[in-house]
Write a structure and sequence with these properties.
Elements lengths: L19 H7 L8 E16 L20 H25 L8 E3 L1 H12 L4 H11 L8 H18 L4 E10 L6 H10 L3 E5 L4 H15 L15 E13 L11 E8 L2 E19 L4 E7 L4 E8 L2 H7 L2 H10 L1 E10 L1 E8 L1 H6 L21 E16 L2 H7 L14 E3 L4 E7 L5 E7 L5
The site of one 2-acetamido-2-deoxy-beta-D-glucopyranose (NAG) has 4 residues, from helix 5.
């Protein structure tokens, strides 16, 4: 039997790196020393196509509601699973041939939201693989538990910071394809999915429709997620995250200087280094031989920057427990901190990586997406993911006007220097829930 399924041939274009934070901050030029900002945008797309084969796969049962635990408990189980998933996905991405010697940056939260939304329509082995791949224990969590947990996460994301964080999903459905109403209902109710009908036979127009939506949701940061859609596509699921934050304490742009970044022992590249001497939250993890710096945003979010002696030691071991420990144990002390200004963009096709995490069936002719439709041959054609991160100053000219330098008090003790001038890891997290919005590794800030 032929294992035919449709590829929707998504082609991604690079995002032109618009520094939105610049625009934002220039509106407030009265402020001095206004340094920014993490600006991250991301989107994950799952496209489902209709295959031509038909086969009677085993009869599938939906996941049984074996345990009716309190919803608070299941929310925390899903939260824990999402955190674990972040690091597993990171390691798979980092190990992938296409990631060698490259910066890595992605949003685990967006990927898990997209896959969880897909799991609403998956059954049988395909569903089991999705749950297991996401780290949801099927004997402790039902599909409903998971949906409720994501409902809460998405609401919370919407709640915490109005314009700075934007997280959501959408589903684009072909005019001639009729998904089960229950599927769309759950997407709408628990994943707050915006629903659209499109004519996927009109490949250009439907791609434009999707791109326009994504552009709007990401404040223009991603304006061409999809270039070419296969006319046989019947449905696309999108999950997006947009985050923009201002540092709680800013960097003085006048202290920003050219410096070197040591890509490896033999390679130096010129980088623009921001500098601040201040009391910082830091922690030295002896086990991982890594120094961790927390840069809080002016919100409940923080960026964690991790500078390891040996990247592999950190990469291979880092876990949610480390993040918890660091956030708890961090102490504040004076440091002279140097961080590159950087702007990176990434684009991934996650098919291999997710298959490598055990989620294989959804891509195959044997995919069971009967929760979406009884039509045989539905399968996921591509899962693509795109992210950008800009760490920068904004309103630098305005700061030049004020003439205020950080006052160097007559401190006698030498202040330890913390220079992120060699490969480091980065995480953007919400401090209360420790939800990992974004995660990555900066090997070379200049590419
Ligand atoms: C799922 O939970 C059950 C009950 O707590 C446990 O026995 C089982 O080992 C768990 N499975 C996995 C894969 O963690
Ligand atoms: C988030 O807020 C916007 C604007 O208030 C609203 O349109 C959207 O439905 C909300 N989403 C969620 C998940 O609450
Ligand atoms: C969101 O905010 C509203 C009002 O501020 C509150 O009632 C609600 O519980 C919050 N939802 C979540 C999930 O935090
Ligand atoms: C931080 O946020 C508070 C309240 O949201 C605001 O009043 C303050 O101006 C902000 N500070 C900076 C540096 O943006």
């Amino acid at each position: 039997m032929a294992r035919v399924f449709i590829r929707c041939s998504l082609r991604l274009t690079q995002i032109t790196s618009v520094l939105l934070c610049l625009r934002f901050d220039q509106e407030k030029i009265t402020m001095m020393m206004r340094a920014a900002v993490g600006l991250c945008v991301l989107s994950a797309v799952i496209c489902v196509g209709r295959g031509h084969h038909h086969l009677g796969h085993s009869v599938d049962k939906t996941v049984q509601d074996t345990v009716a635990d309190g919803s608070a408990n299941s929310v925390s189980l899903v939260n824990e699973a999402n955190k674990e998933f972040s690091f597993r996905l990171y390691r798979k991405l980092a190990a992938h041939a296409s990631s060698q010697a490259k910066n890595i940056f992605f949003s685990p939260a967006s990927v898990s939201t997209a896959l969880a939304a897909l799991s609403v329509g998956a059954q049988g082995e395909t569903h089991r693989q999705l749950f297991s791949g996401l780290g949801f224990n099927g004997s402790l969590l039902t599909q409903t538990d998971v949906a409720q947990a994501f409902q809460m996460f998405l609401q919370r994301a919407n709640n915490t910071s109005q314009e700075d964080a934007n997280e959501g999903t959408a589903v684009f459905v072909d005019n001639n394809f009729k998904p089960k109403p229950e599927f769309l209902q759950t997407l709408k109710q628990s994943y707050f999915a915006d629903g659209f009908n499109v004519d996927f036979a009109k490949t250009k127009e439907s791609a434009d429709t999707i791109n326009k939506y994504v552009e709007e949701k990401t404040n223009g940061k991603i304006d061409k997620l999809v270039e070419l859609l296969d006319p046989n596509t019947v449905m696309c699921l999108i999950s997006y995250i947009y985050y923009k934050g201002k540092w709680a304490t800013q960097f003085d742009p006048r202290l920003t200087k050219q410096g070197d970044f040591n890509v490896d022992e033999n390679t130096k590249v010129p980088a623009v280094m921001m500098n601040r001497e201040d009391r910082f939250h830091t922690y030295h993890d002896h086990e991982l031989k890594t120094t961790v710096l927390q840069l809080p945003f002016n919100s409940s979010y923080s960026m964690l920057l991790m500078l390891p002696d040996v990247m592999a030691t950190l990469e291979n071991a880092i876990s949610p427990n480390h993040v918890t420990k660091w956030l708890k144990a961090m102490g504040r002390s004076n440091h002279d901190v140097y961080i590159p200004k950087f702007s990176i963009k990434t684009s991934y096709n996650l098919n291999d990586v997710l298959a490598g995490m055990g989620m294989t069936d959804m891509f195959s002719g044997g995919a069971n997406l009967r929760g979406i439709s009884e039509e045989h041959g539905l399968a996921v054609s591509d899962i693509v993911h795109q992210a950008t991160l800009d760490v920068d100053e904004a309103g630098a000219e305005a700061s030049a006007v004020t003439g205020i330098f950080v006052g160097f008090s007559a401190v006698l003790d030498p202040v330890p220097v913390l220079k992120f001038n060699r490969p480091f890891m980065v995480i953007i997290t919400e401090r209360n829930t420790e939800k990992i919005l974004f995660m990555g590794k900066i090997i070379n800030p200049t590419v």
